Amino acid sequence: MLAAECAWAILCAEHVRTRELLARLETAMKAGGEAGVRQRARSVIEAIERLQAFEETTHRPKGVVMLKTLRGRSSEADGLLDQLDSESECCNGFLAQAKILLERAESGATGAAAEADALLRQHRQMMSAHLDKEDTLLHSHTALLLSPEEWAAVVSSISTEVGAAGKRGHRRSPVSGQV
Question: Where's the Hemerythrin-like domain (predicted)?
Fold first, then answer.
């Protein structure tokens, strides 16, 4: 089960990184004072784009094979996977809507920044609960339902999936620099 331990060590470390990016996003949201609404909106958009880039090109691809392998093993696991998928889609929607509102705030739309802040608070709450479920429930289901051979396949697929996602991300990445 060394492969399982290695895979979960990587995924848990990435959850720590996701939480750090969420904290940076929250810090950008709270920045005030002399920054001004437009500058703050730009900083928050950049923080959102860093989080999205990390999720799309680094974290999410690592789970592709694991989740495909887990699907169909038990109704309880399938229910959890459906719930996690739904939460991910909802979180993506919150971020997309917040970016649109923040772009409007950059253009001077009054109230748009406050609406974006409300969406981003919802996002943070849902994403934090989502990561906790992955760290506990998903971890437990994979430990019970995947064989050592399946874990070896999951681990060996990680670099392939991340490489493919990185190529897709480079073609549309809105943020340059460090993630």
Answer: 10-139
